[in-house]
Structure formats: structure tokens, C-alpha cells
Amino acid sequence: MKRKIYIILYVLSAAFFVGCTNGADRKGRTDTLYTADAAMEVFDQDPERAMAIVDSGVAVGNIEDELATMFKAKFYSQSNKEQNLDTARQMLEGLLGSNWAKEPNNHEMVLDLLVSTTRLQDDYEQCIRWATEKANFCRQQGNEIEALRTEAEIGVVLVELGEVEEGIAKLNSVISSLEGHRNTDDLDAYVIALRRKILVMKKLGREEEIIPLAQLLIDILGNYREHYAEYADNSYRMSTDKEEVEGYCDYYTAQAYGNLAHAYASLNKTNQARHYLDLFEESDYGHTLFGRQFITPTWCLLGDYGKMLATYDEVTAQMGNDTVNLDYAKMLRGRAIAAKARGNNSVAIDYWQRYSNLKDTLNHQLLEGKAHEYAARYQLQEERLNTEREEAAKKRMGIIATLLGIILIGAAIFVYFLEMQLHSIREKNAVLTKEITDKIRDEEKYLASIKEQPDKQANPTIATDQSALSDSELFEQLRRIIVEEELYLDTQFGRQQLMDRFHLSKESIGAAFSKGSQYASLASFVNEMRLIHGAKLLIEHPEKSISEVATASGFASNVTFSHNFKERYALTPTEFRSRN
To answer: Which residue has better confidence, 246 or 37?
Structure first.
């Protein structure tokens, strides 16, 4: 409630500024009867009169068209009637595409009203869509607190959709992010998030979890009431009026008392429930019709049927003939419970039957689709919007034609450059593939040349006088042995095996490879031989998996093989295999 009041005040301020500006442009003429604030003043009592004031405000230049549409949508969104909510939603979705809504504050207001409107319609998927868009937009604008406030709403809606744990996790994340902040805007967001979680716990019947949340809320509001000047910030939620602060704290504290009373009553802890019920009934909010309607489920649990029924009578009188709604169904259920408790079984049965029939009617409307049922009612409003739509359509067609031309040219350019890039990649891959196959052939030729040497030994060794060998000669002897015996295929092969077998020092082995060859070390040579062997297997054995090829090539894992292959040849093993 408070949040809506703040939004209304904010919009009124914007409208007042617009009205004043337009008045100045019209040589000082002021039409104070036809302004946004004048319309809002009479809306609760006479909505049609408020609409007429807004239309007149547009005519005399006090209110710009888009702001007028925003106000009308705001008016409709305050209604519980489905047709009005749907009209508000259409207006708001239309506003999003306007230049007016490109201004950050206006864009956020439209998104905020879309969230609340779709929530009232129980269209939870769309509610999450708009709430997510709003949260992202607020973060882009640097407004993290408003983003968190919106995410608390997302948490509630996720629970409504059956994503209970995800929704509670979202609420907990928001509460954790806001905990410990000490300014008015952060405090209000914290209060809203706690109330959202209490609402969820109440819906899930987890009354024990409501108690610490409500107690925390009371403590926070008590601290704010006592030290409100320390919470000063530049947000529009900040008030230096102690009376306004008291009203804010009383309202939310009273609701916390009411939630505690209901939680304890549900847990059959009557004394505690009565204590908090007394505190609630002593509050200003507890004396209002909305407050008494809020506490009726607790009265029902505690057997205070007289208070409950008196409130039902008052609410029913306000409803008039509009009783096909969920609130009236809940009252029928409460009356049935009260009648049963008082021993009026026949009356209780009548109320239960009416409750059941009304629930069936409401479910049927939901299943059939309310949009079709209210189509005729929208006709009048549609006619009012048709003129605006036709004018906007002409402008859009010109813009669309230009955009389509740009898009087509852009698409052609994109396709051309994409094809050029793909062609370049194909050529590059072909070169890389040839490089790898050339390596394979070179190694095969080298191995064949070794086998053709007449002095090839059955058990090759290194020359006894190692000091007589140059680094390059020692490398050639080691290379021949490693390649011929395929020592590199052993995952454990390394410098130590050569040292043990040929009684070589680690320095001489290191110099042979680093100084006597093109390789930086024995390890880089071994890695190269394993990669060449793996490439050969990829070509000759397409039935083998990458993991099998890696193991057969001396690598400890296919991850290492793939990483080294890509790093060395700029192709993955899979890409190389596909090229061959």
C-alpha cells in the first residue's frame, strides 16, 4: 500500500512539472482544473470524472498524451475488474514502444505497473517476464535497491508457479543482500522483502517460520521509529515528518502483529495469539475495514465469529452485486465455518454449497479464458484507442520500411562476410591438415630409413665414448632408439629411463635436445611424437574414440591429448579427423 502511495506521489510530481511547463509555453495560461493531480484527487470517488479531467488536461496542453495514457493505465490497474486490468496492460505494453518511455524514469514506471497488473491478473509467467526486465533495467541504471525490491516480487511469483524452493531461495538472497543497510530506501526494500517472505510462508502453511520473520520486522521498524533521522537519504521515500514515519511504522508493525497472531493461532498457542491480536486491534490499521478484513482468518481460528461476520457484512455491502470473485468465496467459506461452530448445520450446508458453486464458476471462467468473456466490454475502449493507433501505424510503417531495408542490406553484408570468414577458416584448416599429414609422412620416411640402415642393431645402444659425440649426434642416436622402439607411447617414459638404460647424465640428455635439435627439451620431442602418432590413428582408425586414441598415443587422458593437439596444430582432434 505504502509503495503504491509513493509511486502515485512520484507520478503526480512529474505530471505537475509537465503541466507547469506546458502552461509556460502557452503564454502563461493555466488550466488548474485539468491537471493530473486534480484527476487523482477525485479518482477514488468518481473514476469517470477523473478520466474526463485527464482528457481535458491533454486538450489544454497540461498533460502530454503518453503521460495521460500512463495515468489511465494507473486508474484501470487500481480496479479489481479483469476487463480494466486487461485494458491497463494493453496501454502499458503500447507505451513501452514510445519515445516517452525511453526516458529511464518513465520506462521504470511502466515496467513497475506491468508487474503489478500481471500479478493482479494471476498471469505469473508474464509477471516474471516484466519483473525480470525491470530488475535488469534498474541494475543498468545503477539502482540496485529497486532491482532487489523487484526480485523479492519474483520470489513470490515463483512460489505461485510451484517453484517453491527456487522462490524461497530468491527471497532469502534479497533479504541477505539488504540486511544491515541503514537508509530509508534500503530499509523500505528490506521491509518489503520480509513481508513477501511472510506471505509465502503463510501460503505454504509454514507458520513456525513466520514468527521469527515477523519479530524481526517489528524490531527493525522499532529502531527506525526511534532513529529515523539517522536513515536520511535522497530517495523520495525519505520523510522528515515524524507523523508520516509513525504512520509508516504503525501500518507495517500492525501487519506483523496480525501475522504473529495468525501463526500462533494456527499452532494452537492461544495465549500468544491473543496477545498479538490485542496489539493488532489496538493499532490504527486494526480499526480500518482493510485491517479487519486482513485479520478475519485469525478471528475464525480463535472462534471470534461475531467480529468476523460483522466485517463480512460490511465488505459485502461495499461489493454490491459484484460477488463473483475469490474474496466473496472466502467469506462464504468463513460463514460456513461459523455456522457449523454455532450448531446451525443447515445454514452451514447452505453456505458450503454456495461456496462450492462459486468456486466452480471461478474455475470455469479461468479454464474458458476470461479474455473472450470480456471482449465486448473492451470494445468501447478500443474505439477510443483506434484513432491513436492509426496515426501511430502510419509512422511505424515508414520506420518499418526503412528498418527492413537496413536489415536486408545488413543481412546481405553479414552473409557475405560470414561466407568469407568460413572460406578463410576452411583454407586455414586445409593448410593445418596438410601440415599434420606431412609430419606423419616425414616420420614414416624416417622410420623406414632406420630399418634400411645396414648397421642397425637388434638391441641399439649409445656409443661408449659419449664425450666424443656432439649434441646433435647424441640427439640422432637417442631419436632413433625412441622412434624405432616407440618408447614415447609409454605414459611413464621420460629422462630417467634414458639415464638408467644408457648411463647418461641428465645434463647430456638435456643438451642433446635443447642444443642438438629443434626441440626445446626431451618432453617437447616426446609430446610431438605422441601427437603425430595420435594424428595417424585418427586417420587410420576412425572407429576409435578420442579417448582411445589418446591412451594409445601415450597420453594420460583425452583432455591432455585434446589440449596439446589444439595448442600445437590449432585444430581439435575431432576437427582434424573430420577434415580427413
So the answer is: 246
DSSP 8-class letter at 143: -
Q: Give 427-447 pLDDT, tens digit per residue.
A: 666 777 777 878 778 777 777
b/e per residue 152-182 (b: at least 16 CB within 10 A): bbbbbbbbbeebeeebbebbeebbebbeeee
pLDDT in tens, 192-225: 999 999 999 999 999 999 999 999 999 989 988 8
Q: 471 is written with which cell numbers?
A: 649434441
Rounded to a whole number, what is the largest CA-CA distance in the chain?
118
H or E stretch covering 572: none
Whether the pTM exceeds 0.90: the reply is no
The percent of the chain in helix, strand and coil, each rounded to the nearest 5, is 80, 0, 20
CA distance 231 to 181: 9
Query: Which secondary-structure segment (H or E) carries 459?
Result: none
pLDDT digit string, tens, across residues 335-378: 999 899 889 999 889 989 998 888 888 776 655 544 433 343 34
Q: What is the DSSP string of 81-139?
A: -HHHHHHHHHHHHHHTTSSGGGSHHHHHHHHHHHHHHHHHTT-HHHHHHHHHHHHHHHH
3-state SS class at 290:
helix
CA-CA-CA-CA dihedral for 439, 443, 444, 446, to nearest 10: 140
Q: Which of 191, 189, 188, 122 is nearest to 157 (CA)?
A: 122
What secondary structure letter does DSSP report for 211?
H
Please, what sign has the CA dihedral across residues 22, 23, 29, 31?
A: positive
Q: 412: number of CA atoms within 13 Å, CB side?
A: 5
